[in-house]
What we know:
Blueprint: H1 4-21, H2 26-33, H3 37-44, H4 52-62, E1 87-91, E2 97-104, E3 109-117, E4 122-125, E5 133-140, E6 142-147, E7 150-155, E8 159-163, E9 168-171, E10 178-186
Amino acid sequence: MDDISTLTAVIGTNINEVRSQRALTFDQLAKLSGVSKGMLVQIEQGKTNPSIGTLCKIANALGVAVSKFIETSDASTVRLISPDEATQLWTGRNGSAGNLVVGFDNPSLIEFWSWHLVPGEWHDGVAHPVGTREILFVKSGELTLTIGGTTCRAKAGQTITFIADKPHRYANDGAKDVQMLMVVCEPGRGGQGR
């Protein structure tokens, strides 16, 4: 989905649909998500393109995968996803990008991401609900992951797993581009809300 205005409208419609299914008011969702009522109204009306952090907060509050907000149709039994179908939800200052490839929210929340970090760039991830795990596979370069007071470095071919219920940072402190694949798994809340 390349057109930002189309993506913004789809996100607004889908958030409204999930919020309505959960019978939540804007005030209730604002309290659950930490996103202001005014921002929620603007997002649902398609007047603003929310950041990935904002989408994560809303998704966590509603108990759905972020991918639920960018879906345009129901998935079939088998789905082949081409590279141009991934949705870029984050861009860095110097050309880095985070692309949500696909996600599911039943029975568990699972998202599959493709990331590219140029040297010197980073992305700060928000804390996910308790029990959420992430798996990071480094395809090239060297990734620096910081969570709490712990820093871990992974080179090409290595995998990092961690509990993602605290803010965390993915960074490229090296001289070569980092390409990585990420799986986010939040167990046991798929489709249930709070």
